[in-house]
Amino acid sequence: MREVELLIIGSGPAGLCAAISAASSGAKVLILERSFRPGGQLVKQTHMFFGSESQYASHRGVDIAGILLKKLEEYGDRIELMLNCTAVGFYEDNVVTVLKDETKYFKIKAKSIICATGAYEKSLAFPNNDLPGIYGAGAVQTLMNVYGVRPGDRVLMVGAGNIGVIVSYQLLQAGIEVVAVLDAAPRIGAYLVHASKLARMGVPILSSHSVKEAIGTDCLEAAVVCEVDEKFRPIPGTETRYDVDVMCISVGLSPLNELLAMRGVEMKYVGQLSGQVPLRTENCETSIPGIFVAGDASGIEEASSAMAEGYLAGLCAAAKLGYVPADFEERRQEYRKQLEGLRSGPVGDRIRAGMKLSQL
Amino acid sequence: MFEKTGIATREMVMSKFPPVERINKGPVAVVECYQKIPCNPCQTACPVGAICIGDDINNIPRRDEEKCGGCGVCVAKCPGLAIMIVDGSKSADTVQFRIPYEFLPLPEAGETVVGLDRAGQPVCKARVLKVMNPPSFDRTPVVTLEVDRKYLYEFRNFRREAE
Is B114 touching A (CB cutoff 8 A)? Predict the structure, then answer.
């Protein structure tokens, strides 16, 4: 069995920043990534990010992955990145079981662990929602932006949060028609500047609308949508049919952190953070000392927060292992200040409430 | 309305424009940022300190119309593509707009395109004067267009005529 100092599970924005931060303090880090390439969801984000300079605002997500990987190289002797490796188990002696290349199992024992496993997409229940042509927004983004494949010709986007609106814009950029973006909520959840970008391309955004059913025999041929009332009940007589070959479901994310639950970390359902989350200290440490969490695995937020949280978790995990840099407190305060800033506005209300409920 | 459709009302739009006298003096930025979100690259990008967000990164940017010389560095930097430059100093009948445009194929100088409003509806003709796409704009090209002055508060986007 392999023994390591610090194991980071996931190489998205949180995992990469955690690795850079911990290695810069002197810790030896092993990163596990289930995909064949590092960067998590960053690699398919072709739009410019929000936030401030500290979180690489105004750079495109795909380029931020490159910036972080280059930083990682600076600590090449202290950071090892294993690709095609999925962590599938996490046991009480801090042993993590790993499936490599979908064929080989092996075990890793770590002194400290940062879980930066990200999130998974929620689904939506409606008749025929399993027809080919109905995708999660993440899948459409992967097809288009990673593999250069058109998912179809005419798209109905379900969900007007940031992901739904951004993916719609990227579909237009790929030359694909977006007939409408709908959302059951009475207000657009996305940053309104993103929504305005779509609106001025002539794509209608329909608040208080939902999918009634999908129509098709072998694959999606049409979608019937209807208005919903304030309790999200369909309003009869408001049905509209859209002939589309793609429906893209973007109704939110849930934290992906079953590994932490398996290890016995204290978990709690926090609606504001979109699901089950581990309780943690202000230093991102869970109820089990030496086990940390960062990014969407700790609650759904923006990538900018995931990066700041990654830096904080990496710094604190390394310190726990005895690598305390001279400027430890200064850096800790700086990352906390960044997080506070990103969460301080009205769009951060939910997150702040969720953070309070999940503090140890 | 805005929060349901993403389409700003005329009052909201006008509140972001400097007075016509200022527009007639020369280029100036119009920052159509209406929502408090954690974002400040416009402030960081401005070489003359004309855009201020302040200590709270969630503040709505304030543009100082006297300091702003309409250089347009902020246009390609805004992640929300919410900034454009307007210039009414060139002609009594038309206004020049510099707007971000992230679609291919790019238009060419001299081309006539369909001017669109904030709902994507055609409102006027527009003439493309210049297309800038240097590496520093990082794949957000900026297009300069000439538009009838009547559409100062309507024009916000364009589409190329079908081939």
Answer: no
